[in-house]
Each structure stands twice: as C-alpha cells, then as structure tokens.
Amino acid sequence: MFATEAPKHWPWILAFGLAYASLALVVDNSYYQLIMTNVLVWAVVGMAWNLLCGYSGLISFGHAAFFGLGAYFVVLAQVAWGLTPWIGIPIAGVLGSLAGLIVGVPTFRLRGHYFALAMLAYPLALLYVFEWLGHQEVAIPMERESPAAFMQFESGRVYIFIGLAFVLLAMGVTRVLEHSRYGMSLTAIKQDEIAAEASGIGALEWKLRAIALSGGMAAAIGGFYAVVQLIVTPLSVFGVLVSAQALIVVMFGGVATPWGAVIGAVTLVPLSAWLDARFGAELPGLQGVVYGIAIIAVILLAPEGVFWKLRDLLARKGLIADTATLAVTESAEAASARFRIEREGSRLLEVKNLNKTFGGLRAVDDVSLEVRRGEILGIIGPNGAGKTTLFNLINGFIRPDRGEVLLAGTRISHKRPNRICALGLGRTFQVVKPFARMSIADNVIIGAYVHAASLDEARRTARDALAVVGLGESAGHVAGGASNRNLRRMEIARALATRPEILLLDEVFAGLTGAETAELMELLRRLAGLGITLVIIEHTMKAMVRLVDRFVVLDHGRVLATGSPDEITRNPAVIEAYLGRKWLDDARA
Amino acid sequence: MSTAQHVENFLQLLTAGILTGVIYGLMCAGLSLIFGVMRVINFAQGEFMMLGMYVAWYCFGIATGFSFFPELIAPYAAALVAGPVVFLLGLVGHKTLISRVTGTSSARLDSEGHYAQLILTLGISLVLANGAQAWFGSAPVSISTPLSSTPWIVGPLRGEEILIFVNQAQSFAALVALAVVAAFLVVMGRSRLGRSLRAAADNPEAAVYMGIDVDRAYRIAFGLGVGITAIGGGLLASTNPFQPHIGIEYVIVMYAGVVLGGLGSLGGAFLGGLIIGLVRELSPLVLPTQLQNTSIFVCFLIIVLLRPQGLFGKAARRA
Amino acid sequence: MLELERIHAAYGEHGVLHGVSIRVGRGEFVAVVGPNGAGKSTLFKAISGTVAVTHGTMRFEGADLLSTEPSRRPHLGIAHVPEGRQVFPSLSVAENLLIGAETEAGRRAWRENEERILAWFPVLAERRQQAAGTLSGGEQQMLAIARGLASAPKLLLLDEPSMGLAPAVADAIFERIVEIHREGRIGVLLVEQRVAEALHFASRAYVLETGRVVLEGATGPLRDDDRIRQAYLGM
Fold first, then answer.
1. Which residues in chain A have Cβ-Cβ distances shorter than 8 Å to C36?
2. How many CB atoms lie within 10 A of CB A338?
3. With an 8 Å Cβ cutoff, are A540 and C230 in contact?
4. B155-190: per-residue pLDDT in tens?
C-alpha cells in the first residue's frame, strides 16, 4: 500500500470534482442544491473522522464536539463581532485543532470502547453548556450591504462550489498524508500498538497530530455548515446523530481512504433526504433509522466498506493491478555491509538487580547480567521462568519495581519503548506481531523510519534489510498471510531496519522445522558477524548450543547459572530445571 | 439563605438523589452483567431502557383502561412486565445480530472485531431510538400516578425550621428497584444459572471444558442485562416524562456507574449508579440546574480518566 | 478409549498439527512430551474442540468427537485441565468444583465424588469459600485438577500441571496424579515439559516435534533413548 507508487488517484479526484460541478450547473431546484451541499459537508466531516479514526483504529463517537464548536464559533463571531465566515471558518479550524489537542491529551490514555464513550461525553456535555449559555437557537445575521463578503449568496449553487472546494482540499490532504509517514505510523499503531512502539513509533505523538488535524477539519466544515443552514441549535451540531453520521459515512464507504467518506455521503445523504421527504411526515426519525440500518448492514456484510469491497472485487477480476513490490535486487552480502557496526566498548547492555512482581508472583527476581558487545547470548529456562518479562523490562514495555538497565552506559530503564528502539535496541516477539494488513515491505519500512528522514531513505533501508534476511521475493505479500518462517524473518528485518546495536530475539525458533532452524541460525551468525549483538531467548537448548557464545539460565525469575554451552549442559541444576529431578535419579538408578 | 434553609435544601436534594440513585443503580446492575461481567459492549443499552419505558407506558395504559390493577400498583406492575418483554427482545437481538460479532465468531474479524460490537450496537441504538420516534412520536409522555402529587412530609425538624418533602411515587419506585436488585443479586450469586454465567464470563475457554454452552450463556446474560435495565427504565418512567431519544444520555449514566463500581461487580455497579444519581441531584448545589446532565458527563470523564478500575478497588485487569 | 487418526489442526492459516495419531486405552496413563511450539497444547485443544481440526478423525469410546459440539464433549467423559490452570478466579473454590460437576455424570456422582476429591486435595476443603483467584499457584493447580475430576470423567487431559510451580509442589502434584490414576481408575493423558517425571509415571509416551509424532512407545525404553535428551539439551 505504501511501498509502491500510489495507484493514480489524482485524475479520479479531479474527475469527481468536474462531474459534481457539472451536475451542480444543471440542477436548479434549491432543495436539491441544498442536498448536494449537505452531501459535501458530510463527506468532509467523514474525512475528518477518517483522518484520526480510519488510520489509527480508535473509534470516536464525539466528532460532533469539534463540528459544533466550529459552527457556533462562526455564527457567534458574526453575531457579536461582525466577523465574516470567510475568516471565521479558518479560525474555527484552528480552534478545532486546539480542542483536539485538549481532548486528546487525557483521552488517548484510553483504548477501545472507553475511548469511544469518553469521546461521546464531550459533545453531550457541550450540548447542555450551550443550552445553558442561552444559545438554543442562533441565526446568522443577514448582511444586505455586501452579502458575498459574508458568504451569503442568492443561489444555492455557490455553496455547492464552496463545499466542493472543501471536499477536494480534504481529499488532497488525506491522499498526501496517507502515503506519508503519517499514514504509515498510524496504520502501524492501529494494527499493533506494541509492535509499533518497539519499532520506534511514538504512538501518543502521532495520535495527537491526527486529532489536531481531524478536529480542525471537522470544526472548519462545521462553520460552513452553519453558514449553509443559517440557524444553529445545540442538537443539530452537538447531537449524537452528527457524530454517528461522520462515522457511518466512512464505515459505509470504507475506512483509511478519502473515497470512503465520499462514497458514503453520496449514497446515504440523498437516500435519507429522499426517504425523509417521502415518508417523513408520517414517520419522523426515518433519517436515523436509515443510518442505523446502513451501519448494521455494513458491519455484518462488508465490514471493510464499499470501497475496499469493490477494490477487492476488481483486483480479483484482474481489472486493477495488485500492489507491486519493493524490488530487492542486491545480494544479502552486499546489503549486509550497510548494517555493520563498528563501535568500541565491551559492556553493551547491563542489567542490574532487576525486580518485577505481578500480584505476588516474582516474575523477575533480582536479575543481574551483562551482555558484551558482539556476543551471542542465549537466555534459556523452562516455561514461566521470566524470560519474556525480562525482555519486556529491557525494552521498556514494563517498568521494573527495582533495578536498572544500561545500554552502552545510558540508563534506559525509564524510557519509552520507541525511545529505547531509537537508541539502538531492537526486538522480536515470541508470538510474532506483524502489522497484518500491511505488506511485508511496509512492515519493514515502519522500522526503517526510526532513523530515516524521508520515505525514499526508509525504502532503501527496508530494501537492504529484506535482502539480508532473504525476503526479497515476498516483499509485496500481505504480512497476515505469510508463513511462520517468513514472519520470523520479517520481524528480524523490521528490527534490523531500525539499525540496532543489539537485537533481542524472543523464541525465534519456535515452530520452525529442522531445515528452517538451520537456515535461521546461519542468518543469525551473519548478523553477529556484522557486529550486531544478539540476545536470544529459547525454551529448549537444542540449536542454541551450537549458536551461542554464552548461556544465562533463568528459573523461577532468578539466574540459575551462567556459562559456556559446554558448562551449562553438564550443570546438574540446569538438567533438573529442564528435564525434571527424576532425570538424574533415573539416570543414577 | 439561613443555615436551616441550606440544610433543608441539602436534605431535600439528598433524598431525591437517593431515590433516583437506587433506580440508576438497578439500570447499572443490568449493564454490568453485559459489560462488566461478560465484557460485551452494548452501546444500545439506553435504547433498551427506553423500550422498557414504552412497554411500561403501554401496559399501564391497558391496565388502567380496563382497571386490572388498582391504580396505585399499576405503574410498578407495568415496569415489572417490561423486564421479561425486553429480555425476549434482547435474546432475539443477541441471537440475530450481536452474537455475530462477539464470542467465537469475532476472531474472524481480526483486529477490527473489537470495534464491530461498538459500531453494530451504535447502529441498533440509532434504529431503536429513531424507530421509536417514528412509532410513538417525539412528544414526551409520562405515566401519571396520583402518588406523584402527594408527598410525605418529614418534619418539621429542629423546631419548625426544616421540612422535607418525599415524593411517594419515587419512593415506591425505589423500593421496587431495591427488591429487583436484591433478587437479581441472589439469582446471580446463588443459583446454578448465575454460577454458569459467571464462570463463562470469568474464562470462556475453561467454561467450554466444563461443558457449558458459552454462546447460550452469553445470550442469556445479554437478555437478562437489558431486561433488568428495562425494569429500571419502567420505574423511572413512573416519575419522569420521557421521549424516544432519552437513551443516549442514560448510556453515559450507566457506563459511569458500572465503571465507578468496578468492572465485574454487580453490587458495585449498583452502588456506582447510586452515586451517579446523587451526583446528578446534588449538582444544583454548586452548578446551574441546566447543567445537571453535564455534571454526569464530566463525572464519567473523570472516572474513566483517573480511576478506570473503579472506586471499590477491584483491579480491572483480570487474572 | 480415545483414538486420534492423522489429525491436522490450524490457527487461522498456520498449521500446527500435521497428521498426529494418538491412542489412549481405558485407564491408561499416557504422556506427550516435546519442546515448546511442538503443538502439545494445540493437541489438547483439538480434542476439546477449541482449535479447528482440518483433517483426520477423532473418536472417544466409539463416538465421533469432531461432530460433537465442544461444550458437549465434557459430558462424554473427557475432562480437560488446561495449561496455566485457568480456574474461574472470581468464583469460590466450592463454586469452581460445582461448575466442574455440571456434567450429567458429575451431577449424579457429586456426593461421593466430593468426598473423594477433598480427600485427595484436603487443602481445598480448608479454602472452600475463598475466591479461586486468591489461591497460590500450586493450590490453583490442585483446584483445576479437582474441578476436572468433579465431572466424573473417564479420561483426564492434564496440560503442564507443573508449570511455574516450585519443584516440591510439582512433586506433590505428580504424586496425587498417580494416586488418582490408580485409585480412580481414570485414564490420563499428560502433557509435560518435565520429561523425566512424565516418562517416569506414564506407561507409554509420544514425543511431538513441530506438529508431528517423532517417537512413541513404552516409557522404559524411551527413557534411555538419547534422542529425547538431544531434543531438549541439543547434545
């Protein structure tokens, strides 16, 4: 989706603009003109929602807060200060962005449904505040002197053109952003926030940028909506239906594309308007029922939305090309050279008296160890020995109760995972964490962005990393469908692309066949040859004894033994921890 | 105002808060079974409450029309009828719609499966609220009982100075709510059904190993949860006018109560709802009365942002 | 009693079991050992129906398991004691046992069963009213086994009962398992990472590696087989 040249969307966007404008020139009926304007308004609100929620996966039930603030600002500024909407709308946009940040800072601590519900509370609270302030119904003052200067026009057609300008602008912005670091980072966060943080993405920073943009866009179009409707009431701009409509047009049309909101608005807004006109007198509330049914149908029948459904259909029929791949042409050896590390100092990673307790269970109990630059260290121990917890403490996913971790002399134990990643510590996961809907190449590009200034540079780094692990041919495949072998390699490539000095590998051999294990060992030896320090967790010693320089054995959260493979496999305490006490008894017997 | 007037005002609001809070508590207990215990997100809980109100209103109309019941009992009998009716609606709604995005089948929807519940129930909420508007009209209706107009008067206390009016209709509604909550807690805590539901919620996978039909358990829990909330709605309807769009605000009220009480605890949810009711009724002491509802939303935000594990301590994280 | 023929199982698109055949006779004690990721827990989940089986047949006392709903399988007499214990943490010890006894056979036999179970695990009688989540790891493991026994099973599936337990506690639990097998005349299928214990107590064993059975047979000869030591220690 990202690694490739974007399919040509610009001509389509232009074509849509021309077609809509032509239609506007033909339609004379002022009611139809109003509907055509409303379609554009909801398309923009949808795109605003999509900028945050479509890419990050957070669901907001509260975009009405931004929309309503924008609408009220434009109306009240004109009433109170005679400020024209031409200026009021851009200011509303800025205010919306600010509101986004104010809302975002506390609310991004929440996830999932808590986030959605908290977002719902903002517009509902504002609704009553505006009622209490006495703004039950505020009308835009008519400017008879110079109406155009106040965005007041005789013909409804002009509003369509202004709305269209909003839509094209919003589509353009979305289009540019989704292919930039913005889109990639948010998409990575959406698919696996933990893996994203470990790959160097600051999740909170990206979400704040997103909500500022999204809130600004929603507030600006809210201001325009007020101008079109002439009257603003708390319910019409802060009501639940506003937030719901923003979400529904996007969900219906398709998330994470500018086309989704447009498709949704073009379909649903006229449909509900027509039904309302036809049956609204006998059946008030029909509009809401239409939106409700639309979203229920979408979730049950095509959860990805109309746009993606159509796209899949066309791709299957061969009518549009599937995404091309990042061409990996270089040999693994040549590409490897670019990850070589030549630094001095013998102690790279120091773990000092680390402790972590989970509800009474001492997961990591006073663990101290040292990793020397350039070595391959194996950390082994039975299930539940605290190996993965140790990794999580080192790379910043969890904070230690006591003790500290130093990376090349720098204390990292209270830094965030994305900062630790940027400092040169990469990791993979016991259960692989791919960004499942992205291509393998895009997964690796995410990692490359930690040190890359531009998409081009990130792509170059990713290409090298893919060459090193030997995934060149599968680069264009979607990660979710990849084999275990390829996923393990993809994770290594993603970590490698962050240009690490040290790699933490959590059970990389799990589930691999004998041949695949041998192949992976060769790759790990090559990485070690580049000067990259490796720390490998394994449950079994098999394979490891021929790979590592040194073992640390954990049992019940403590260091049981340290030493060369030879020493460790002869150590009775280790054998007991591994094969059980009876092994030695039976052996003696 | 004199001190006595302040005290009188406070006691008056406190009484109203307790009476309202008990009913909120009942509604919260219903949501708690669905969300706190089963971890199914139901955004349409407020609309099921609204349906409970209309069912009660409809039954009350029939009962008084044919004078089946003495007028004094009719509103409460009608509210109790709303329970089983909405229970059945909940079973059907869960079987046909919600079960398709929860439990075992939601794995197929991968990362978006989690949001599917949220958005599906948003759709259900829109259809129910707006459908009710099409069906019943948007004019507020109410269940009027003669009790509403005859308060008990407590006092005078402290030498003629303090008089507290206790709304009789609210008091009866609160008593019925208490009885329903007590029965509900006993069923959930002591019966075989309750034990199976709690086991299925605690660990659905292990529940399968115990031979529990987990899909069925979830369906029953959903029906029970909306049914209990609907009774709360029916009781609320006996003292407050309502209209089809009332649900959306109560969804926040209920989630606030459930989160405050600590996820997974039905009794906690009841207390949480009671506190939310008190907050709402006491807020006029410091805020303009128009902002009563805003106080609840702000309260909800404070709770989820600062103390998502709830007041009563139980850690939100499950073993 | 339990017969698995060429079972293939997968999580989504990732195959985990590739044609595993295993049998357990009535009252037999059989062990399944192998390194992490070999598919041991998946094998149990396939038997209980919480993982999709793509090919193969599975019979329990003649009944076709694959066409039996997962929640019906315990009623046939299979008790699965899952990895990581998975007791119901908010339920009391007594309630956990009662949930276990929800099967048809379990409810009929509850009176005498309860006595037997509490005799095997007296600590559970002391902790009766305590929430299961507050028990220690070893007590939770005992409760998990007891809960399985409450269903009056013919076959007990034990998934890593020693996981995360101190050696002395694990030893005590193994002793109890042997007793249960002997006195209760219940078949046991044991997955265990402590190979030595598993091979010591079981009469037959299967060694699983990357979803395939690589070794099988009576445990006596297996104990002396160097390939097991190799699979774990690599030398």
1. 383, 507, 510, 539-540
2. 15
3. no
4. 777 666 778 888 888 899 999 999 999 999 999 999
Which of A61, A125, A299 is nearest residue B116 as measured by Cβ atoms? A299
Given a contact as 3+ CB pairs under 8 Å, which chains touch A? B, C
Measured CA to CA, the distance from residue C96 to residue C177 in angstroms comes to 19
ipTM: 0.92
CA distance A47 to B112: 19
Which residue of A121, A191, A284 is in closest CB contact with B300?
Answer: A121
Element (H, E) at A139: strand A138-139
- Whether the CB-CB separation of A232 and A77 falls below 8 Å is answered with no
Q: Which of C102, C130, C143 should be substituted to probe chain B, the one whose Cβ sees the most B Cβ atoms within 10 Å?
A: C102
Render pLDDT for B254-301 as a digit per residue (tens, 0 to 9): 998 998 888 788 999 999 999 999 999 999 999 898 898 889 888 888
Residue carrying structure tokens 């839509």:
A167
Contacts across the A-B interface (CB distance below 8 Å): 144
Place of tokens 């070999």: C38
Helix, strand, or coil (residue C17)? strand
Q: Are strands A402-407 and A347-358 parallel, antiparallel or unpaired?
A: antiparallel
The whole-number pLDDT of residue B159 equals 67
Q: Which residue in chain C has the smallest CA separation from A577?
A: C194
Helix (H, G, I), strand (E, B) or coil at A557: coil
CA distance B278 to B14: 7
Residue B176 near residue B168, CB atoms below 8 Å:
no
Answer yes or no: do B111 and A124 touch at CB < 8 A: no
What pLDDT is recorded for position A283? 81
- Which chains lie within 8 Å of chain B at 3 or more CB pairs, if any? A, C
Shortest alpha-carbon distance between residue B192 and chain C (Å): 8
Q: d(Cα A222, Cα A120) in Å, to the nearest integer? A: 17
Task: Tell me the CA distances in angstroms from A578 to A296, A315, A473, A587, one per residue in order.
Answer: 53, 52, 39, 14
Mutation target among C13, C16, C36, C197 for the A interface, most CBs of A within 10 A: C36
Burial class (CB in 10 A: 0-12, 13-18, 19+), A142: exposed
| Amino acid (one-letter) located at A222 | G
Q: How many helices (H) and strands (E) does chain C have?
A: 11, 10
DSSP state of C72: G
Name the residue with tokens 């990485």. A527
What's at B4, amino acid-wise? Answer: A
pTM over 0.95: no
Helix (H, G, I), strand (E, B) or coil at A342: coil
Give the gap in angstroms from C-alpha B206 to the nearest C-alpha of chain A: 20
Instruction: List the alpha helices (DSSP H) in A192-285.
Output: 193-198, 203-229, 234-238, 240-253, 258-279
Subunit contact C196:A507, Cβ cutoff 8 A: no
